[in-house]
Design a protein that fits this description.
- This protein has about 240 residues and is mainly α.
- The chain is about 55% helix and about 10% strand.
- The strands form three sheets. The chain has a two-stranded antiparallel sheet.
Length: about 240
Amino acid sequence: MALSIEAKLHALRIIKDEGQKNCVTPERLIEGKSDAVLTENGDGAVFASGQDKVKGTKDEIYDFWGFLSTHTPPYIRPVPQNNPACYEFTSAGKKYYEQLESQGVEPLDVPLDSVIFNEKLLAKVTPAFESGNYDTAIRDACVLLEEAIRDKAGLEETVSGQKLVVDALHHDKGVLTFPECKKAGEAEGVFFLYSGVMGFARNISAHHTNRLNGQLTALQIVIHIDFLLRLFDTAQSR
């Protein structure tokens, strides 16, 4: 699991506000800080520890800290001429924080059009990526792949999922073949490429939310579907 967007923003605000004044470390995010709090009867204030902690497990916070410090370019750096444990934003880190705060979703490290080359697929998934609905991006990409297979194979609208791939692309009985496949094992392998996507990505994203809901997971699956669409352009009738 990873920190929620709210927890990440909380951690980033602490780095922004305290980075140049105090030592900000992963432990500060995990353990909180000592701060003055009013007593229950309102007579005065006492110092209490554990205030303003980031909501998340220790491992999640350490993982997020590692992401910030090792990203290329880094999002945080040691404060110059200060305790090495004190960190502050880099210019890239400030931009990351501002994008996360304004958009409410993780900004992409790369433009989608630099890694997704099918124009229909790019148009289909871009709104979902921009809104942070990553399971929707996977589902939309799988639907586009289904439509491409169904149209070229000439199959009915009611045929979908695994049955669609079997009827269209099965290495022994499918109506389509790939000219790249010269041997039986190659034809079987390409069939399982498409069958695997339908059985895994399509079925999970169609019937469940948040099981495939990370940005990187969604991007890698959609890039794989982009490849399958490009390869499918070469498919021909048996």
